[in-house]
Each structure stands twice: as C-alpha cells, then as structure tokens.
Amino acid sequence: MNTPIKLLPFTPVLIKLLKGPVEYQEKSAWEKLLQHKNELQIFLLSVGLTLVLDEADGYAFVKHTASGEEETGISWVHRRTLSYEESIMLVLLREMMAEFETGEATSRELIRKRREIKEYAELFFKENASRVKFLKEIDRLIDKAEEFGFLYQEEHHEVPDEQRFRICKIIKAKIGPEELDDFYRQLQQAKEQLQQPEEGTDTGFSNN
Length: 208
Known about the structure:
Layout: H1 11-19, E1 22-23, H2 27-35, H3 37-46, E2 49-54, E3 59-64, H4 68-72, H5 84-102, E4 111-113, H6 114-122, H7 131-147, E5 151-155, E6 164-167, H8 171-174, H9 177-195
Antiparallel strand pairs: 1-3, 2-3, 4-6, 5-6
Helix pairs in contact: 1-2, 5-7, 6-7
C-alpha cells in the first residue's frame, strides 16, 4: 500500500503565488502566506525564486532571483511583453497612485471609475483623427491593465464608463520612483519639442 503524500502546509498559497500576485483582500490565502512566509522564502529560493512581500500595502508576488533562471534554464514566472502604449497606461496608473498617497486620502484603497481613468489618460495620449477610435483604444489599454492584474473591477455596471476599478498597489513594486522620474523627463522633453518652432516657420517675433 502506497504511503499518502503529505503536502507542505503552504502548498495552496504557493500555487496561488506561481499563478500571480496575492493580495490581503484574499483573507484566507493572505493569512496562510503570513503564517508561513519564512518557510515559503526558503522553499522559493531553492527553486530560483524570491518572495516579494509588502505587508503594509498588502501584496506579495514571486520573481526570479538574479541568476536563478540562468542556472536552472526554467522560467517559473509568466512574463509579458508590453507595448509602448500599455507601458504608458501602467505609468499613468502608478502616477494616480502616487497622487493618491501624497494627498489627503480617507481610504486605504484607490478606487476610480473607468470614466475617471480615461479622462486622466486623455491628457497624455495623442488623440487621432477619430475620437471614437481614440477612446476605444484607451478602453483597450484599461482592459489590458486589468488583465495584467494592475486593475481590479470592484463592481459591474451596465454603463461601462461607470465601472469602478481598484488600482492595485502591486503596481508600486513594478513601477518605482526611477521609472516615474524617467517618465516625467520624457514628458518634459516631448513638451519642449512641441513648443519648438519648425525650421523656416514664422514665429511672430522680430529680430530687432
């Protein structure tokens, strides 16, 4: 008779971590994670992974150690390649989070309607000839951010623009202060280029 295999006590939360981030809203999994965090860290290191845990903001995820993937030749964590526009949307959501946390927030979580996210994003994306297509593209980027786990739809609404999303705090781990500073520099450079007159264009100023 075969001896039953005894699973590790943190196996359920380990499986969740390998699929994606775990947040404090998942009460059962979060409590299990905190209870076994030291054991999880040791186990994950043995397979070339690192546990990233932020107890204050309430999220955890795993990433490859610096050389773990090279040594094992195995990728445990699903990697996504983002387009330029998708990257900009994530930076904008991160900026919204930064503004929320430096303001006089009365709640722990940042909740915004789809309409509010679109209005914020419109300031940074160049509108094309068709406004309908432009807004559809922003909707697509919002849906992508939700698919990637940076937005969580809190409630469904029959009017899409009234849908409420929670901007997940894990975005702070993915886009840090350096990335935000780099975005600001690029934004300033873009503004300066737009302000520069084209060669041969009459600026309206006299040389006298």
